[in-house]
Amino acid sequence: MLKETYRMTGTVKWYNEKKGYGFITSDRTGEDVFLHHTALQPQEEVQVVTGDRITFKIQNQKKGLAALEVKYFSDESEVIESDQEAGIGKSSSKIDSKIHEKIAEKMSKAFTDLSLNPELLRAISYAGYVDPTPIQAQAIPIVLKGRDLLGCAQTGTGKTAAFALPTLQRLMNTPSKDRLNIINNNKYKIIRKIRVLVLSPTRELAIQIANSFSIYGRYTGLKNAVIYGGVGQNPQVKKLQQGVDIIVATPGRLLDLMRQGHVNLSHVEVLILDEGDRMLDMGFIHDIRSIIKMVPQKNRQTLLFSATIPHEIIKFAKNILHDPVNINISPDEPTLEIIKQAAFFILKEKKQALLEYLLADSTITRALVFTRTKHGANRVVKKLQRKGIRTDSIHGNKSQSARQNALKNFRTGKARVLVATDVASRGLDVDNISHVIQFDLPDVSETYLHRIGRTARAGAGGTAFAFCEKSQRQQLKEIEQLIRMRVKIVKNHPYTI
Ligand code: AMP
């Protein structure tokens, strides 16, 4: 429980400008703190949006904790205040560093040997990481050297930190020279330029990457913005106008904003493309080419991550990467081995009954169910809800806020089951998914891999069930060839053929 009255830091969880309120998640405890618009400093003229890093004091109000004197983290005025006034910022950072020193003691040498800046190590220790994942151990030194990289890694391997940490370090080590401008009253204003561009195929993944940059960069003072379609563009434009160092974007909306003159990519030093294969699958290649044309070609560092490396990715990589180092965290790495996999051969019309039968098992604490279509997802949800199983869904027909809400319900345990289609669930990062259930087998074998990667995140175990129709024997064989493993077939089960 938060008790402190000194200034603390946090991330805006959501803020509704029309209603004039929202919530901040405290860095210290993860608790939500109410944010009323009157708590925003009038001189700041800021528009607060999800993901903003801010500092604030708290007050215990009738209904709970509320924020006071909210300011942007790392604003020049904040630095002055914390250095000179009442030791507020100092006391907070003293306590913080004590906590982090303790956590850092638990951190393995493998992490501390990576030559990461202490402020980044502090953030990682805060996130509770002890050992770097294989892709982090391999990629961080290479990216720190400024090399281009082609990383083949499934999601769930920790690849976001593998590119975010060294990229943040690069920005910290080489601050752009023209960042500080004196404005009136001897105050400094930080002029930020977009120095890092991350492209992601889906909005959910973009939001998650931006969140990761906020978490890992919490002590760096660097700002990021996330740009994606399906929502109004004004808050995103305002955020850009206030200045950010890093943007994480889906290609379509980014291009829109570039064409309207809201985004200047001429200062980009690092370009990162995540889930490259998916971006090509989703037909973003032309958009991406148009975007890359607007990013400096000289002295640019480019990192391309992809779950699979088909021929098109190799071709694409040749065009955009300069003398890259290749890293391959292949499917036969432990991530896959710790997932228990089983397939049920079943008639289509029996699938729902099998799903309900399986869900009667209380060891399935958090299940992600994949269907082929949005309508299929809706049907499954309705039937499960009728049986009293707490279920929500995430698919392309849902509004962004409904999708975020469903994810939140799933994360917090309000929904035990989340039914998803592939596009909407790509990059979905929810801890402790005990089971992934493929109600429909995917058409493309690689998708099977992405789906089961949603469980067993960061080394935890998990179970993946697949429902196969009689005609899908060949598909299952292809999947087995891809993962280089046999999937156990469940026989003599009441619902199997
Ligand atoms: P990613 O593959 O980047 O989506 O990361 C998958 C999950 O692993 C996320 O929930 C991260 O917070 C978590 N993670 C990343 N790196 C580590 C680490 N070194 N130790 C423990 N968890 C990690």
Give the termini separation. 54 Å
Name the CATH homologous superfamily of the largest domain.
Answer: P-loop containing nucleotide triphosphate hydrolases
Mean pLDDT: 83
Largest sheet entry: 7 strands, parallel
**Global geometry:** globular
Put simply, the count of helices is 19
Question: At the first level of CATH, what is the class of the largest domain?
Answer: Alpha Beta
Q: What share of the residues does DSSP label as strand, in percent?
A: 15-25%
| Helix/strand class | alpha/beta
The unreliable regions are 75-95
Hetero ligands: adenosine monophosphate
C-alpha Rg (nearest Å): 23 Å
Number of domains: 3
Question: What does the secondary structure layout of this molecule look like, with pairings?
Answer:
Blueprint: E1 8-16, E2 21-26, E3 32-36, E4 53-61, E5 64-72, H1 76-84, H2 88-106, H3 109-112, H4 118-127, H5 134-144, E6 149-153, H6 159-173, E7 180-183, E8 187-190, E9 196-199, H7 203-216, E10 224-227, H8 234-242, E11 246-249, H9 251-259, E12 270-273, H10 276-281, H11 285-293, E13 301-306, H12 311-320, E14 325-329, H13 334-337, E15 339-345, H14 351-359, E16 367-370, H15 374-386, E17 391-394, H16 400-412, E18 417-420, H17 422-425, E19 435-438, H18 445-452, E20 462-468, H19 473-483, E21 488-490
Parallel strand pairs: 6-13, 6-14, 9-11, 9-12, 10-11, 12-13, 15-20, 15-21, 16-18, 16-19, 17-18, 19-20
Antiparallel strand pairs: 1-2, 1-4, 2-3, 4-5, 7-8
Helix pairs in contact: 2-4, 5-6, 6-7, 9-11, 18-19
Bound molecules: adenosine monophosphate.
